Amino acid sequence: MINKTNEFFSIQTTNLTKRFAKKKHKGVLGLLKRNQSRKTDKEKTKVTVALNKISIKIRPGELFGLLGPNGSGKTTMIKCLSTILIPDEGTITVNGFDVQKETSMVRASLGMVVGGERTLYWKLTARDNLTYFASLYKMQRKYARKRVEELLEIFHLSDRADERLEDYSTGMRQKVAIARALLHDPPILLLDEPTLGLDPGFSRQIRRQIKELSEKHGKTVLLTTHYMDEADKLCDRVAFINNGNIVAVDTPNILKTMVKEKENVEITVYEPPADIERHIRSLVPDAEVIRLIPGNEEGNPSRIKIIGGTAEENVGKIIDSLRQKKVRICSLNVGVPTLEDVFIKLTGTKLTEGGIQ
Amino acid sequence: MNLGIYERSTLHSNLFVVWNELVKNMKFLMAYPVIFVFWAIFPIFWFIPFIFQGQAFVGGLQSASFAQISGTGDYVSFIVIGAVLNSYVNTLLYGMGESIRREAVQGTLDYVFAAPCNKAYVLIGKALSESVSSTIFATSQLTISMLLFGMTFTLEVLLPVFFIVILLILGLYGLSLVLAAFTLRYKQSHDVSETIGYFFYIFSPVRYPIESLPSWAQIIGKLIPLTYALIIIRSIMLLGTSLSDMYLEILALLIIDAILIIVGFYMFNWMEEKTKKSGTISHH
Fold this sequence. Notes:
The complex is a heterodimer. In chain A, helix 6 packs across helix 7 (141-154) and helix 6 (126-136) packs parallel to helix 8. By secondary structure, chain A is α/β, with parallel strands linked by helices. Helices cover 35% and strands 26% of the residues of chain A. Chain B has twelve helices and no strands. The two termini of chain B are 37 Å apart. The model of chain B has no long low-confidence stretch (mean pLDDT 87). Classes of the chains: A alpha/beta, B mainly alpha. Chain A binds chain B through residues 18, 20, 76, 79, 82-86, 95-97, 104-105, 107-110, 112, 114-115, 118-124, 128, 131-133, 135-141, 143-144, 147, 180, 184-187, and chain B through 1-10, 12-13, 16-17, 19-21, 23-24, 27-28, 31, 106-108, 110-117, 122, 273, 276-279, 281-282.
């Protein structure tokens, strides 16, 4: 979209709003209750605001991160941009085209990776998958074949191109999903959690490819993730989204200055007591944020984040106190603030387990 | 605007969509060979008991009383043609809805809808693949029946019969689009397709001449495309009637086809819009 200052934006949303209405399930017993039937349809419906007046502008060639925990509205945003979800209010332009009026041009401008490896035909080969999707992008047969071979080569899949995807690893299928997004060489890529569920090796490969697409090939990339570290390393700018609201937009470095002056202490522990946050607060009363990020069933320890105040000065006191409480300490870090610290400070909410790396 | 290698639709690119959809679905079918063998052979077992029952009633393979109503005493061929054509109804009605459901379960439906090609060509490809598989199954069933019951047909009936089968398939496309629309919105249409299948089975002359039905039921039967296809094909194959003599039935079949296809596309577009608003395309 060309704005008043003649600046072109690859993606621009203005007051984008999406609500989901869900009828409350009454159950069999609920049907028998008279008072239930007296409720109006409005009362029986629960409305969730998935996106609340979102306005963002993404420049051509920019690698833009949309960060937030699960259920924050990231995927809804991607679906609205990709024309598979109709917003309730607001406008969206993609590559200068109105999403609701010039749907076909918007679709031609976008390549997307949403849902990852599950969104391919596992009973077909990588070549068959790519050829099929090439046809959906109106490519001529001869050109489609050439392009498919090119992408198989780029993603190092040529040797196994004629094997069914059910025989591929998760990382290889994710590569096919990204190759599919590039079939029609779109100027804009929407990547929804592209490294989710991948092992560290494949994650690194995928991140390197995303960086290359932006830097070498000039693609505009909208990357959604809840891996703050990934966003920090890759993105030119990031937006934090929480409960359907954008809470901050800027470069990772500028965002981190919001907590830069504050000390950042992170202690990893096993099985901390439930009142640990309150206990540490009593030791460091001037700390700006104290958060317990629980560990997971895979054996990862819990993390205690202390931002601001005299956290560093009181590290010894905190450690002694934890030992007295018989909490097993795994590691201690006094470090520079991360995007995660900024997110915690801005939203006051913890990230989900999956967001912690 | 930079649009990558996006090209405008051409006849060639649209046919490429149809072709790839057809190939994709045929490869799915081949990936499950048991389903393939089942539909090629098993439907025969559904009508064989009727033939033995008929033999028990009339004491042979010809029936004079049956000839008075249907025009042919060869009730075995009558039943076989009915059963084989009815298998098109079963596979086509079930197939399109199931194909949409499968895409939703696989998570590929979002990608199909987010692509810039006209979805009508994807749906035509899906319907075509169902037609090809139905024709393979029908040919297999007919061949086995010919071997089992000694049925014979002249080769010259093949072309007109094929023409009428195409007209039947067109009408069924329309209905299967309605079912695909149902699947898109309500996530399954199996029960509806079963109901329609039984509706056709009762009110169309699949097992008995339409004249056997009460007059009110005959009126309903005459709104069903399968009724006309069965009447025309049996006339050609069993009575030696030419296609031109059946022009009224062909015209009726064409009109029903046109109505069903228009309603089908309208319903699909309507449900697609509703599903995009509710955000449930990929639900299943």
